[in-house]
Amino acid sequence: NAGVMQNPRHLVRRRGQEARLRCSPMKGHSHVYWYRQLPEEGLKFMVYLQKENIIDESGMPKERFSAEFPKEGPSILRIQQVVRGDSAAYFCASSQGQGAWEQYFGPGTRLTVT
Amino acid sequence: GNSVTQMEGPVTLSEEAFLTINCTYTATGYPSLFWYVQYPGEGLQLLLKATKADDKGSNKGFEATYRKETTSFHLEKGSVQVSDSAVYFCALSGDSNYQLIWGAGTKLIIKP
Question: What digits encode the pLDDT tens for the residues A97-113?
Fold first, then answer.
């Protein structure tokens, strides 16, 4: 059973460009979570999605960031008009149920904004 | 609000040394506590967990005890191996059942 897949693993964008980060959950998992890790800090919760629904986006910045988890295909975290402060590692997790201990994490995408 | 503080790294030890990585927390209510490990190039893996005071989580020789009186969840291992080299994250469950509040991570380097 393949684990949580994230791609790309490394992404470089110039200021003002768009970044699209993909997350394929483990087979059978319908809950997806996105976390961001800024340099020298712990992970911060961004958003929790189930298929076609955003359940909790309380950790998402109000502007430029959006997330989706369509019926078919991976979950996408989209950052428009990136700025240097968006440089971070973005981790995706998936789970079958809703408990925190049930989350399986991907290897992360490291975004660098130049 | 809830928060987690971990000792800063990197922590460098020789093989077979005793390991302690400190973790303290601030929380309202009774959160569950977790240790995650991230090996180079891989995703975070749940290492162990404890769901109530005085519980001891253990896995792969690692242990941590949920100490409510000292608000701590220190990670210990009696004899580390080179293969334990990784980044270790302490975390607690937030106000909702699914949110995790994270420490900054501690890099562990084990030298042969």
Answer: 877 778 899 989 999 99
